[in-house]
Structures are given as C-alpha cells and as structure tokens.
Write a structure and sequence with these properties.
The protein is an all-beta fold. The protein folds into three domains: 17-247, Sandwich (Jelly Rolls), CATH 2.60.120; 259-383, Galactose-binding domain-like (Jelly Rolls, Sandwich), CATH 2.60.120; 400-470, Immunoglobulin-like. The protein is built from two helices and 36 strands. β5 (59-62) and β6 form a beta hairpin. The radius of gyration is 22 Å and the shape is globular. InterPro entries: Beta-glucanase-like, CBM6, Cellulose-bd_IV, ConA-like_dom_sf, Galactose-bd-like_sf, Glycosyl_Hydrlase_16, Secre_tail. GO terms for molecular function: carbohydrate binding; hydrolase activity, hydrolyzing O-glycosyl compounds. Belongs to the glycosyl hydrolase 16 family. Residues 260-382 form the CBM6 domain.
C-alpha cells in the first residue's frame, strides 16, 4: 500500500465502485448558477452572534478556485464582511458523497466551513431540519471538525462530532459519505469519524431527507470567541471544487460494514467502578465513580477482518474531564487514547472517538482510566469504509510513505537531499523527535504502540503531513 504525501494538486480519478458524479462546480470560469448568496448578519449573528456582514462581493474566482475573503471593514453596521453561499432552492441531495478541495486560513477569529442543512429548515426550523458539517475550523486550532446536529427522539437538541489534525492552510479534500445507515467523515480519503443513523436511531430521521450545500467563512461567534486578529485580515478561503457523487444515481445502498455496540456495564471484570441509572438516550445503566487506574474488561469480542476501525465512547464529566485508553491482551497492546471533555454534568453526555487498527480474530478488550472523574454509558466498534474511498492521483515528485500500515519501519521518498521528520500521536504529542533523514532512509517506529500516528516532514521549506498505522 503506497500513500502520497501532502497536498494533491491534481483532480481525483473516477470514483471506485458504484459512485457516480451527479453534480459539481469546478469554479473554472466563474461561480456556477446553483449558488445563492446570503446577505447581512442574519438573526442574532446567524444564531451564533457572528461579527460579519455577508456580501456576494466578497466571493471571487482566481486561478480556477473560488475565493471567499473576510475583511475588516465597516459595512451595514458591522466591522467585518465575508461571504456565505448556498444551493438552497436550486440543488439538494439525499445521501451521497459530498466533497470539496479546500485551503483555509488559520488565525484568531476565523471560522470557515463546508456544511449542509436540511431542506425543511424553512418550515420546521433548526435543529429539527438537521445539519451535517463536513468541515469546520476555528481560530488557530490544529484540528478540523466534522459534526452532525439534530433534534433527538425526546425533542432535545443533540450533536455528535469528531476531529482530526490537519495543516489547514494547505489544500485538503474534505468529504462525507452518507447513506441510509451511516454518515462517515473523511480527510484526504482517510476516515476519522462515523455516525449511525440507521432506522432513525436516536431521532435521526432528519438525516433521511434532502440537504443543500453551504460554503462560508464567519468572523467570531459563540464557538471561536470574539477576539479577532485583525492583522491577519483580509483572509482567504480557497475552494478548488465541490463535487457530489451518488450510488446508482440516488446515493443509497452500500455495505454498512461491521459495527458492535457494547454497554459499558456489560463488562466481564472490573476494578474500582460502580454502576448507576442513566438519563442518557435509551436509559438503563452507566458506569461511574471512575478514578485514575480503574478499568473494565470486555472479553471475546470478534473482529471479522483486519483493518481500520473507529472506536466511539459515550461519556460525561461534571468538571475537568479525564482520559481513557483502549487495550487488548490485558494492557499489553494499547490501541489508542482519547481525552474526555468536561460536559458540565455527570448525566450531560457526549461522544468521543479515536481510530485504531484491529487484527481479525477474537479479542479481550480493556478500557483503562488514564485519569478519572468521568462516566461511560456505552462504547462502539465501527469498521471504517474502504471500498468507496476515491483513489487520489499521485505525482512522481510527491513524497511517498511506505509500507502503510507498518510493522515497525518506514521509508519516505521525497524530492530533495534531506528532510526533517517528526512523529506525533493522535493527541498531538511528539512521540519521536524531529531528525533529518535522506530519501529512502529507514525510520524505526517499532517503539510505538499499535495505533494511528501523524508523520510531519519539512522538506525544501514546506511542511507536509501524512497519517500512518503502526500495526
């Protein structure tokens, strides 16, 4: 398996399997006719107390790419201007693969996004209409976010999101694959988050209706905050293209893949924890009173095939949060760790996740409290999609990382005499310090535990990143 490094300047090849291209805007000769421009600041700053006034004049096409420019200027009673554009009333889709190749700024106060809203927003409002955020980024965060928002079966607002590291100022392909069973989020063809919407579980009926596309860059708001680095303005969001694919013309079908839901209280053995009634969706019990060093063991879970999996955890923490890790073989192999945020209450639930490479077979899993003060209601193992991921063209001069997955040694090919290379874990910790290597030189990663890592490379003054899996 060979994976190209960094940015892909070419267009994607024909999508594998039964995906068919049904709509696109390449922005080659201008902005296509299916976009409608929002004007103004909306209601309460578009519901987020955003600081900008949206204008069509802040969108242009330069060198075959859409450019959305955020400026510090007084207009319409606001101190900033930008653009928000949508396909509402002109193009909408039920299921499919929605992708865009985008480069965005990284500065305090910016909030660029590629997202979707349900067509029914004009009649039933938000969040009941549903929202799918393909990509969001705020401020100078090292991560991009993919999230869904909806009204659950109890009539309450709900959201479920994931995030992954990205060098956002470089071009990346951001995508979701959405069918009647799952929504999956991708960065450059690598899945990093998945949500189960099968049979409208947990009130997700909204996600079985048509949605329209949105591109925008906000300035300030409830999420990024209200401090803006005005010295970084004007700032540009570049969109090379937006494309929509569907299966057999309608987006449906597709193999949902393996998924196993495990109630936290169904452990085979444990140390230090207790159970209690939960008010989370579905009721029943959750595991709580978790202190640092406590653990739960779940035996004889069968993994049908080797590959990449997303591990989800339903957690709550009144204050301070914590950290958990997942392992097999009584802690001999750590598959990954995830930070648990403060949710403001022991029954205020959120879902966090990480990726892991799992070998086929029957395993005894363990959840270990690296630091305590959190509750867990359930956890889930979801096989990541592979067959429907588009193949990316690779140019001969692009850097190549192989083998991937690796049993313990990597090699990197690149155009240059040497490069500085460092390796980070999925929590952003530098686990192998930077050093200079030559093309094809062996890189020993055998000291790393099994899991997903980020290799960062500086070559010829340019930084590139690529994920790899340590088997």
């Amino acid at each position: 398996m060979v994976i190209g490094f960094g940015d892909n300047n070419g267009q994607q090849n024909a999508v594998e399997g039964d995906w068919q291209l049904v709509w696109q805007d390449e922005f080659t000769d201008g902005i296509g006719p299916d976009w409608v421009f929002e004007t103004g600041n909306g209601a309460n700053g578009w519901g987020n107390n955003e600081l900008q006034y949206y204008r069509a004049e802040n969108a242009s096409v330069q060198n075959g790419a859409l450019v959305i420019t955020a400026r510090q200027e007084n207009f319409g009673g606001y101190g900033y201007t930008s653009t928000r554009m949508k396909t509402q009333g002109r193009k909408s889709f039920k299921y499919g693969r929605m992708e865009a190749r985008i480069a965005i700024p990284s500065s305090l106060g910016t909030w660029p996004a590629f997202w979707m809203l349900g067509n029914s927003i004009s009649s039933i409002g938000w969040p009941k209409c549903g929202e799918i955020d393909v990509m969001e980024h705020i401020n100078t965060s090292p991560n991009i976010h993919g999230t869904m928002h909806w009204e659950d079966h109890n009539g309450n607002y709900a959201n479920y999101g994931g995030d992954t590291p990205a060098n956002v100022t470089a071009y990346h392909v951001y995508a979701v694959e959405w069918d009647e069973n799952y929504i999956r989020w991708f960065l450059d063809g690598q899945e990093y988050h998945v949500a189960d919407i099968s049979n409208g579980v947990n009130g997700t009926q909204e996600f079985h209706e048509n949605f329209f596309l949105i591109l925008n860059m906000a300035i300030g708001g409830n999420w990024p905050g209200f401090q803006v680095d005005n010295s970084a303005l004007p700032a540009n969001m570049y969109v090379d293209y937006v494309r929509v694919y569907q299966r057999n013309g309608n987006g449906g079908g597709g193999d949902p893949g393996f998924s196993q839901h495990i109630e936290a209280e169904s452990y085979n053995n444990m140390s230090g924890v207790q159970t209690e009634n939960t008010t989370d969706s579905g009721g029943g019990l959750n595991v709580g009173y978790i202190d640092t060093g406590d653990w739960m063991a779940y035996n004889a879970i069968n993994i049908p095939s080797s590959g990449n999996y997303t591990i989800q955890y339903r957690v709550a923490s009144e204050s301070g949060g914590g950290q958990l890790s997942l392992d097999i073989n009584a802690g001999a192999t750590v598959l990954g760790t995830v930070n648990i945020p403060s949710t403001g209450g022991w029954q205020n639930w959120t879902t966090v996740s990480h990726s892991a490479y799992l070998n086929a077979g029957t395993h005894n899993f363990g959840i270990y409290a690296q630091s305590g003060a959190w509750n867990i209601n359930w956890w889930r193992i979801v096989q990541q999609s592979t067959a429907s991921v588009p193949a990316l063209q690779e140019k001969e001069e692009e850097s190549i990382l192989y083998p991937n997955p690796t049993p313990g040694h990597l090699q990197v090919k690149f155009d240059g005499d040497n490069a500085g290379i460092g390796i980070y874990d999925m929590n952003g910790r530098l686990v192998i310090p930077f050093r200079n290597v030559q093309p094809g030189e062996d890189i020993d990663v055998s000291s790393l535990k099994s899991g997903i890592y980020i290799l960062k490379m500086n070559v010829n003054g340019e930084e590139k990143t690529r994920r790899f899996i340590r088997k």
